Amino acid sequence: MNPEQRQRYSRQLLFSPLGEEGQERLLAARAVIVGCGALGSFQAEALTRAGVGYLRLVDRDYVEPSNLQRQWLFDEADAAEGMPKAPAAARRLAAINSDVRIDSVVADLTPENAVDLLSGVDLILDGTDNFETRYLLNDFAVRESVPWIYGGALASYGIAMPVLPGRTACLKCLYPEPPAGAQPTCETAGVLNTVTAAVAAIQTSMALRLLAGREDGWEPRLTTVDLWSGRIRQTPAPRPLPDCPACVRRQFPHLEGGRRAPISLCGRNAVQIHERARPLDLEDLRRRLEPLGAVRANEFALRFFIEPYEMTIFPDGRAIIKGTQDVGLARSLYARYVGA
């Protein structure tokens, strides 16, 4: 470490369980955060301030006013501009700590791009909001023996658990199938910003311990919290199930599943679709759409307003159609205004 780094990280150096060797490991560590919302934005800022050497931020979405209550890296200007979350987060983080190399990727994590986006790191952090993506993270992490840290928050309740392949249960051990039926979401049940911060802090603390190589004497735990009632519960992380399809049978269908079908987004009156295998020229699309409705565009995304719908279109051809949960209608709107 140079003198400036010793000063910046002095309080971590004084924390004896971490110390100088642990800090050196953090400076050389590499992590990917999937999802830059309430959990991921907190994780990203905490790891950046702690001096983790490389962060890759992966997020499919853009900043909206409703995000600002709990998504720590964003401000009103980001929401007004409709900035994609990953580059908006990277812009803020670069001003916080220039020691840290940050790559931002505006993309939906899919079986097609998972290897590219998740490879070459020491640890994966879950900042997502749906089981489909978490199962994909789990398949990759178990197959490649990369630790990842599961977390979720809703209303005043949260959960966090490290998944250490070969040592602890994986997500398939805990949830062989996703929860059945309609589930509450942040849009229907709300969420306290304190519970997202608490869950993300627990996840990040686990990440720091793993990245610093400080696992001796550590018993991985499953933590649940309810910050409204004040209840906090910890139990030892379960062991892998004897017949787990991922841990034991080495079956990874979510990773090998091919391109995703259109999906209604959790907690949003919106549908995300992938209809094209080719990238889009957003400037050309802007010129074509301007006679038809209001258009706002930057290098990361184009937003097209055609009442009562709002389409956000990304350079990779992906789109989020807001104002409907009807996949067929979303596909029709995409074909009408973007092309098949």
Describe this structure in words.
- This protein starts with a helix and ends with a helix.
- The model has no long low-confidence stretch (mean pLDDT 91).
- It has 2 domains: 3-236, NAD(P)-binding Rossmann-like Domain (Rossmann fold, 3-Layer(aba) Sandwich), CATH 3.40.50.720; 263-337, TATA-Binding Protein (2-Layer Sandwich), CATH 3.30.310.
- It has an 8-stranded mixed beta sheet, with helices on both faces. A 6-stranded antiparallel beta sheet has the order 9-10-14-13-12-11, covered by helices on one side.
- 42% of the residues are buried.
- By secondary structure, the protein is an alpha/beta fold.
- Helix content is 34%, strand content 21%.
Radius of gyration: 20 Å
Summarize the main sheet: 8 strands, mixed
- Work out the strand percent: 15-25%
Briefly, what CATH class of the largest domain? Alpha Beta
Q: Estimate the global geometry from the Cα principal axes.
A: globular
Proportion in helices: 25-40%
Distance between the termini: 53 Å
In DSSP terms (H or I, runs of 4 or more residues), the helix count works out at: 13
Q: What is the name of the CATH architecture of the largest domain?
A: 3-Layer(aba) Sandwich
- Overall pLDDT score: 91
Task: Please give the number of β-strands.
Answer: 14
How many structural units, i.e. domains? 2
Q: What is the name of the CATH topology of the largest domain?
A: Rossmann fold
Would you identify the regions where 5 or more consecutive residues have pLDDT less than 50? none
Structural class of the helix and strand makeup?
A: alpha/beta
Task: Give the topology string: H per helix, E per strand.
Answer: HHHEHEHHEHEHEEHHHEEEEHEEEEH
Strands of the widest sheet, in order across it, are: 3-2-1-4-5-6-7-8
CATH homologous superfamily designation of the largest domain: NAD(P)-binding Rossmann-like Domain
